[in-house]
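WARN no homologs supplied; continuing
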Amino acid sequence: MGKVILHSAVTVNGAYEAPTPEDWLELDGDSRDASLDQLTIADAMLLGRKTYEGLAAVWPKLVDVPGMETFAARINAMPKYVGSRTLSGPLEWNATLIEGDLTESVAKIKENSTLWVSGCGEFAQALAQRGLIDEYWFGVHPSLWPAGPRFFDGFGPLRLELVSATPYKSGVVTLRYRPRTA
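OK structure emitted
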């Protein structure tokens, strides 16, 4: 049986979308390697429409960018399952539209796959509300952004249990949590 892992890079104040592309978060060598290691445990990606459209517009262009080529190769090759109320199939970028009941569909995909959820907007909240996320992995970056959406705005309560905390030279800290069962 696989699992669903939500992974998000966020600032200390919970912002997950940079005010400008130049403000996006950077990794040091160790945290970059750890991020790639984390990505390789997943069999497929589970994405909402907005995240799918955003990533599909960027990652195919990064295959020849120094420092990004390994990430791009992995992400571009992975199967992707997309939850959307507005898209219709077939989808591009090795993606399949999730059809039918979200809970049933994700449980079926999860039977044989570890799924990597990228993004933390409406779709991630829908997964969390249904108890479909097995682990939450946050890459907390030492930045404060004055504007932009915040991680899980308006969602909760959900109690989490710390699994691990790993700091890096850059000040990035990877925090891994599981939903608390009791």
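The first helix runs from residue 29 to 40.
OK
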